[in-house]
Design brief:
Helix content: 40-55%
Largest sheet: 6 strands, antiparallel
Number of strands: 22
Strand content: 5-15%
Distance between the termini: 12 Å
Strand order of the largest sheet: 10-13-8-4-19-18
Shape: elongated
Length: about 775
C-alpha cells in the first residue's frame, strides 16, 4: 500500500511534521468567470436598440451562463494540486465549451436532423447553413428595431457564444482579463456600426464599469490607472469606431428586392407604404379569376397603445396539408372553393400570405404550421421568400339576412375580443354610439361604422399622421384620427375595430395585402395578379354568430367592399341608427385589466412577422441550458456519492480497512476546500481537521487516525481483505461522525458547494482512477 494513498504522507512514525494552518482555497478563475458573465450580460443588453422585445436577451444570457459554467467546471476538473496544467490542458475547457455550444445550437435549432436530438449530422449542417442564409436576408430586409426571428436568434447565438468562449479563454486560460475586453468591444460596436444615432450611452457606462470590476477582481495589487485607462479605451473605442465605418441608414437596411413583415406591421406599415420605391413582393393566380385579399396574420390583443397577436401556438399535427375549419362557420352559410397559386418573390416573412380562410396548402418547403385560433400559417425556421405553393381557399358567402339574424349574440369564449382599456378616451365610445349605437343588430352597426369612414369626411393620407404626430394605432391615435379625419389603412382599421368593440361586436384587425393589379396575360389559363409594396394593407374583421370572422373595408378610396357589406347591393339593408343609442358600457365592453389575453402580450411593439422569437422558443432555450448545466454538475456529484456509498458499505460489512475510512475523511475535507498538504502525516492531518472542527469532540478523529497508523506501521496486522477484519464496525460510525463535524463547521455554503462540485471526485475523474477501492 503506497503511503501517498493515505492523503497524508508521514515523514516519521514517531515525530510528525508540524501541522499546517487550515486554509480554504478560493480559486481566482471562478471569480473571473462570474465577473466576465456580468460584463457579457451588460454588454449584450446594448443590442436592445436594434432588436425588438426582450426574449432574445434571456436566451443569450442563458447561453453565456451555460458556456462559462461549462468552462469553469472543466477548468476545475483539469486543475490538480499535484499536477501543473500544461498547454493542452489549458485549452481543454475551451474545447469542451465549443462542443457544448455546437450541441446546444443543434438541440435548439435543428433537433429533428440530429442523432438523439443533439448530435449534428450532415442534414444538421445543411439546415444550419440555410438558417444562416435566412438570417442574412432577414437582417437586410428588416427595419429597426428588428424582430429577433429564429434565423436572427441563430446568428446571435453563434456570434455571442463564440465571443463568450474567446473572452473566457483570454481571461482564464491566458490569464489576461484585460484582453477579454476585446470581445466585449466587438459586442458594443455592433449597434454603433448600424447607426451612431441609436447607441445607448447607459449600456456603455455600465459595460465600462463591469470591465473595471473584471480588472480589479483579478489584480494582485491595485492598478487604478491601468484599470481606468483600459476602461476608457473600451468606452471611447466603441463610440468612435462607428464614425470610421460606413453608416448603415434606413435605406440601406430596407432596399434591395424585398420587403419584410418580420417587424411589427402596425408600427412599420406606414413607413413601408411611404417608401419611394415600389417593389414587387409576390404574384398569384386564381382558378375563379377573382382577386383575393392575402392575409399574413390577425391582431386581436389591444393593449391601449397598439395591437398585437396571440403567441403562436405551434402543434406538430397542425401541418398545412389539412388546416382546420374556420371558427364559428355554420353549415347554413354557403361556401365555395377556389385555388390560389402563389409565387413569393421579395417578401421576407415567417407568415405565409394566404386568403382567409384556407383549408389546405401544398408545395411548401420546410416546416410550416397553422394556428388553431387565427388559422395563420407560420414557420419557425424559414421565411416565405422564394416559396411557390397552392392554397385551397374557402370562399364564405353569407347573405345579408344571415348576418342580420346573428343579432347581438356574443358566443362564450369571445369576450376577449371585446376587451378595451379601462381609461379609453370618451370621444371613441361617444362617436361609436352617435354613429351606430342605436342600430338593431351587430350587422347594422358594422355597416354604419363602415359608411361613417368610407362615405363621410375622411381622407386617405399616408403623411397626415406623421405631420400631425399621431401615427400608430393606440387610443390617443384613434382620438386624433377622429378629429383630423385623415390617415391611412391602419388608422381606419384600428378605429373601426375599437369602435366595434365598444358597441359589443367582437373584432380584430388583419394585416396583409390588397388584391393587387391584374396582369393582362394569363398564367396556365388562370387570371393572374401582382402584389407590390404599395398593396400592404390592414382591415378589420368582425365576428358574427354562425358566420364567423367577416371582413369589412372602412379605408376610404382603397380596397374592395364585400358584397354583403355594400349598401348599394339590393339585398343589403339600409342601416338605421335610432334616436336612443345604446350606452357605451351596456354592450359587453371588457376592460383590458381583466382580460387574460392582454396580460399575455407585453405592452410595446407587437410582432406580426414573428412573436418575438416566441415564448416557446425562449422557454426551450432556458430548459436546454438548465438541463445541460444540471447534467454537467451532477457528473462529479454522482461519482462522489457512489464512491461514498461503496466505502461505507465495505466498512459496515467488515470488509473495509482503516485506510477506507481515512480516505473518506480526507476526500470530505477536500470537497470542503480544506487544504491538506500532501506532506502532512496522519497525526498532523488529524490536528488540522480538529482545529477546523473547533469545539467538537476530537475522539472520533483520533480513533480513525490511530487505526490508520496501526494498519500502516504494525507488521502483525492482517488485511481485512485477506479474511480477517481487525477493526470494529464502529470505525464506520467514527468516520461518519468526523464527516458530520467537518460539514457542520464548513457552513451551509460550504456544504452546498461540496455536494454540487466535490473536488475529490473532480481530481479522481481527472486521474482516471476506478471507484472500486
Amino acid at each position: 500500500m503506497a503511503l501517498s494513498d493515505l492523503g497524508a504522507r508521514p515523514t516519521s512514525p514517531v515525530s510528525p511534521a508540524p501541522a499546517p494552518s487550515v486554509s480554504v482555497r478560493r480559486p481566482p478563475e471562478l471569480r473571473t468567470s462570474v465577473l466576465l458573465l456580468l460584463a457579457l450580460l451588460v454588454t449584450i443588453a446594448g443590442l436592445r436598440v436594434i432588436l425588438d422585445g426582450v426574449a432574445w436577451w434571456f436566451q443569450l444570457a442563458a447561453l453565456c451562463l451555460l458556456l462559462l459554467t461549462t468552462a469553469a467546471a472543466m477548468r476545475r476538473l483539469v486543475s490538480a494540486r499535484t499536477v501543473r496544467p500544461g498547454g493542452s490542458r489549458k485549452l481543454l475547457p475551451t474545447i469542451v465549451a465549443v462542443i457544448v455550444l455546437l450541441l446546444t445550437v443543434t438541440a435548439v435549432f435543428t433537433p429533428s436532423t440530429a442523432i438523439l436530438g443533439v448530435i449534428p449530422t450532415s442534414r444538421s449542417w445543411d439546415a444550419l447553413s440555410r438558417l444562416g442564409e435566412a438570417a442574412t436576408v432577414s437582417i437586410a430586409r428588416q427595419s429597426l428595431p428588428a424582430v429577433a426571428v429564429t434565423p436572427i436568434v441563430f446568428l446571435l447565438v453563434i456570434g455571442v457564444g463564440a465571443l463568450a468562449i474567446v473572452a473566457d479563454l483570454l481571461a482564464n486560460a491566458v490569464r489576461s482579463p484585460a484582453l477579454a475586453g476585446i470581445p466585449l468591444l466587438v459586442l458594443l460596436a455592433v449597434p454603433s456600426a448600424v447607426s451612431i444615432d441609436i447607441t445607448d450611452p447607459v449600456v456603455f457606462v455600465l459595460a465600462a464599469l463591469s470591465y473595471l470590476l473584471l480588472l480589479r477582481g483579478n489584480a494582485t495589487r491595485p492598478q487604478t490607472r491601468l484599470t481606468i485607462g483600459l476602461s476608457a479605451m473600451v468606452l471611447v473605442g466603441a463610440l468612435v469606431a462607428p464614425l470610421l465605418l460606413p453608416e448603415v441608414n434606413a435605406t440601406q437596411a430596407t432596399n434591395g428586392t424585398g420587403f419584410s413583415s418580420g417587424v411589427n406591421p402596425v408600427l412599420s406599415l406606414g413607413d413601408n407604404l411611404r417608401q419611394g420605391v415600389e417593389r414587387t413582393l409576390l404574384s398569384y393566380s386564381t382558378e375563379s379569376g377573382t382577386p383575393q385579399y392575402l392575409r399574413l396574420v390577425s391582431l386581436q390583443n389591444f393593449s391601449g397603445s397598439n395591437w398585437g397577436p396571440d403567441p403562436f401556438r405551434q402543434r406538430s399535427g397542425n401541418t398545412p396539408d389539412a388546416i382546420g375549419a374556420p371558427p364559428g362557420l355554420s353549415e347554413a352559410v354557403a361556401t365555395s372553393k377556389d385555388r390560389v397559386f402563389v409565387t413569393v418573390q421579395g417578401l421576407t416573412s415567417p407568415w405565409l400570405p394566404l386568403p382567409y380562410p384556407t383549408s389546405r396548402v401544398d408545395g411548401l418547403e420546410g416546416d410550416w404550421f397553422w394556428d388553431s385560433d387565427g388559422l395563420a400559417v407560420k414557420s419557425t425556421n424559414r421565411d416565405a421568400r422564394s416559396e411557390t405553393y397552392r392554397a385551397t381557399s374557402v370562399v364564405i358567402e353569407p347573405t345579408p339576412a344571415q348576418l342580420a339574424s346573428a343579432g347581438t349574440v356574443v358566443p362564450a369564449g369571445f369576450d376577449r375580443f371585446l376587451a378595451l382599456p379601462a381609461a379609453m378616451p370618451k370621444v371613441i365610445a361617444e362617436t361609436a354610439n352617435r354613429v351606430a349605437g342605436g342600430a338593431g343588430s351587430n350587422y347594422e352597426k358594422a355597416l354604419l361604422l363602415q359608411q361613417f369612414f368610407r362615405n363621410g369626411d375622411f381622407q386617405y393620407s399616408e403623411t397626415a399622421p406623421v405631420d400631425q404626430n399621431f401615427d400608430g394605432t393606440g387610443m390617443t391615435v384613434i382620438a386624433a384620427f377622429l378629429r383630423v379625419k385623415a390617415g391611412y389603412c391602419i388608422q381606419f382599421a384600428s378605429s373601426m375595430a375599437v369602435m366595434a368593440r365598444s358597441l359589443g361586436i367582437p373584432s380584430r384587425i388583419a394585416v396583409g395585402f390588397l388584391p393587387g393589379t391584374q396582369l393582362p396575360e394569363k398564367v396556365d389559363g388562370r387570371t393572374a395578379f401582382t402584389v407590390t409594396s404599395r398593396n400592404l394593407h390592414s382591415w378589420p374583421e368582425l365576428y358574427f354568430d354562425g358566420i364567423g370572422w367577416t371582413r369589412f373595408e372602412p379605408t376610404v378610396s382603397l380596397g374592395l367592399v364585400p358584397s354583403y357589406a355594400d349598401v348599394a347591393s339590393p339585398d343589403v339593408p339600409t342601416p338605421v341608427n335610432t334616436a336612443t343609442p345604446t350606452p357605451s358600457n351596456s354592450a359587453g365592453v371588457r376592460p383590458s385589466s381583466s382580460a387574460a389575453p392582454l396580460a399575455a402580450e407585453p405592452t410595446g411593439p407587437a410582432t406580426a412577422g414573428a412573436t418575438r422569437a416566441t415564448s416557446i422558443g425562449a422557454w426551450s432555450w432556458l430548459a436546454v441550458a438548465i438541463l445541460l448545466a444540471i447534467v454537467l454538475a451532477l457528473v462529479p456529484a454522482a461519482t462522489r456519492a457512489l464512491l461514498r456509498r461503496r466505502r461505507f458499505r465495505a466498512l459496515n460489512g467488515g470488509t473495509g480497512s482503516a485506510l477506507t475510512a481515512w480516505r473518506e475523511v480526507i476526500d470530505t475535507a477536500t470537497d470542503l476546500d480544506i487544504d491538506v498538504p500532501d506532506t502532512t502525516t496522519p497525526r498532523g492531518t488529524a490536528d488540522l481537521l480538529a482545529r477546523f472542527i473547533g469545539d467538537a469532540e476530537r475522539s472520533p478523529i483520533d480513533r480513525v487516525r490511530a487505526a490508520v497508523e496501526r494498519e500502516n506501521y504494525a507488521v502483525t496486522v492482517v488485511s481485512a481483505r485477506a479474511g480477517t477484519a481487525p477493526y470494529p464496525v464502529s470505525l464506520a460510525a467514527d468516520a461518519r461522525r468526523v464527516i458530520a463535524d467537518l460539514r457542520a463547521a464548513a457552513g451551509r455554503r460550504g456544504r452546498l458547494r461540496a455536494t454540487l462540485l466535490p473536488l475529490s471526485a473532480v481530481a479522481r475523474l481527472r486521474r482516471g482512477l476506478r471507484l472500486d477501492d
